[in-house]
Intracellular septation protein A (Thermomonospora umbrina), 220 residues
Amino acid sequence: MPEIDQPSPPHPHGFELPRLTAMLWHALPRFVEGVIAPVAVFYAAFALLGLNGALIAAVVWVYGGIGWRLARGHGVPGMLVLAALGVTVRAALAAVTGSPVVFFLQPTLGTLLVSMTFLASVPLRRPLAQKIATDMVPMPEAFLGHERVRRFFLRISLLWSLVFLVNAAVSLWMLFHESIGTYLWVRTGLVAVLGAAAVAVSVLGFRRCLRHVNGEAAPI
């Protein structure tokens, strides 16, 4: 009997990226909940109730999010619990000192630390961008081992290091030279614009990298 051609097994370097729209819809609620809503809640309470009212509102927002997850039977991520504890400590220190700068200084310094972590991961050849990407979208080891993929994640780690550095530098300057209202909205806008630009560059660059890698993997 004549042999029937069998389909070639997928090349170990091949990989398909989920649709961009699906990724954006997955990330949008988290961006609103984690970035936009807390600023709106704090600013509204600050304008109506003053500093202490705003600090209480910030703490209630975080613990309300935890309570909402528990009420719906969803698990509470450990990072959210740590964030709640961090907000509680920052709010207490700001209330004692009477300075909103104390409340916002710690996350700004944290942004600077994140920038340095991205930067340090490059010479170590363990790009942080790759670790974050694989946490969101599992990828085969053979694909991650491709030289073009390794170079891509090293460059993207440098990009995100720069983004977080600019974010931290502008935030620190505004925190000590502008009003809290200006700091809140301008910084939020800056985070959104820089983040969106960096995400666009990252996704488009990754798609270009995928085309090259999958092109090499395509059967001739």
Notes: The chain is about 80% helix and 0% strand.
